[in-house]
Design brief:
The chain is mainly α and 146 residues long. The protein has a domain of 78 residues. It is elongated.
């Protein structure tokens, strides 16, 4: 059997029926539901109205318990399989492990915008006009400083 369920659910769709009970009846029903959820044993309730309400709730409690146990079993099996896979890692198959040496292949060239005006030939693309204007401005400043 799976581990004990940590609690039980009370669904909004059932609240309308619970409003028909007085506080004493509601308390007795909730205590009976809690006891049934923990132990699986149904209490004998004081009247037929509570017995009927409990029988409707009991169906949902049983359904939720079965669903909880199914989920616990699936998670337990997944954990066993994952653990078994880790245990089977031996030196013989350790070569199958992917190693990423984290090599950085980025290169950042230093581009400064200097243009050599001595280059001749029509095979070169024409320089960016902004760079030409910048070089001309630098030349004028140099002349003014002399």
């Amino acid at each position: 059997m799976a581990k004990p369920k940590p609690g039980f659910m009370l669904y909004h769709e059932d609240v309308a029926a619970l409003h028909l009970l007085d506080d004493a009846q509601l308390g007795a029903l909730i205590r009976a539901m809690a006891a049934y959820s923990e132990t699986g044993e149904a209490r004998t309730l004081e009247n037929d109205v509570l017995e009927m309400a409990f029988s409707m709730m009991r169906y949902k409690l049983d359904h939720d318990r079965e669903r909880y146990e199914t989920i616990c079993e699936k998670r337990s099996e997944a954990g066993r399989l994952a653990h078994a896979g880790k245990r089977q890692q031996t030196p013989a198959n350790a070569a199958n492990i992917n190693v990423n040496p984290n090599v950085n292949l980025n290169s950042n060239p230093n581009i400064n915008g200097n243009i050599n005006s001595n280059i001749s030939g029509s095979s070169m693309a024409s320089p960016d006009p902004r760079i030409v204007a910048l070089e001309a401005l630098k030349e004028r400043i140099r002349r003014n400083e002399q």
